[in-house]
Every structure is written in structure tokens, then in C-alpha cells.
Amino acid sequence: ALLDLSGVHHIKGTWMGSTTLPCTYVPSEGFTEQALSWSVERDSSTSTIFRRDDSGDHIFLSNFRDRVSIPKHSPGNASLIIEKLEMPDSGHYTCQVVWRSTNNSLITREVTTIVKIVKVAATKPIIRASKLGLTVPAGARTSLTCEASGSPPISYRWFRSIPGGKVPLQSSGAELAWDSLRPSDSGMYFCEAANR
Question: 96 and 73: one domain?
């Protein structure tokens, strides 16, 4: 099975996240990998992103430099890993592998993956209490942690309710911590999660 890839793969990538475009085969005796390349078709023009041959690995498109890689030292795995996904990365990606057989003939196979990059809004956050829970003795150390998912980076803000409204707290990270709780720390706390 030179390329056990049939049909077209569809992948949804999360903006600013990373994704792997599959391209694998089972190495077999009598066939030597000569070259492998990845190209992308966007707006009806095709460009080569990556090529691996006897002279090494080459990345041709500058906007993919430092963002794409192919596993090294794993024969049969030509999958393309793209990091820090950008909106213009959407497109049709084709993996092409060329083998030389023992009688010196060349065999070429390719597989295409359609990639769509989506922006995912931050979800409504949840708040987790530390081991001590939400009813805590004075003087104890404790914390609240805010968790949300979506396209990174996600920023967090904490608020505390006061009579007549909410007041922002100094903490801007996912965790709101107290070294030594005072009775005056009792109250209702809110967390807000946001991304671009």
C-alpha cells in the first residue's frame, strides 16, 4: 500500500491553533522514497510549500517558514504539521510522494486535504474552586480558576459584586488567589473570558 489514502480529507483548523494534515504509507521492500512535497491551491493558483529530497528539507513559501514541519525519522509518515494557523491558510493541500522501484521506475501518488480555518469565539467560562471548596476558613490559602475554550489567546478578567453593581479586581489571569482569606473576602465573584 504505497499511499493508503483514498478520498479527500476535510480538516477544520482553529485559528491560531495547530493541525496535522495526514499523509502516510506503509514502507515496502523494493520501493525507495525519492521525494515528497506538499503544495497548496488557493484562489486558483498552486504553490509548493515544502519539498524533501536527497538535498534535504526545503520550505518555499516564506509565510509558512517556522510554522510547518514533517516528522523526521518516521518512515512512511509524510504528514504536514502547521502551527499558528492563519485565516489565509484555508485551501486545498496536496501531498505527493515519489518512489523509485528496484527496476528504476518511478511511482507517484498524491492525496488532497481540504483545510478550512475557523475562528472560534471564547466559550462561556466555568469557575473551579480549589480543594477547599467555596466555604473556606479565615486565614486559609485558596484560589478560583476560570476555564474557557476557543481560539487562543484567551484573556480572563475577574469581578466582584458589590451593592449596586460589579467592581473589577486586580487579577487578570485565569486564577484568582488569596494567600490568607479574611471574612471581608466573602462575596460573589464573576469571571469573564474573551478572545479576539
Answer: yes
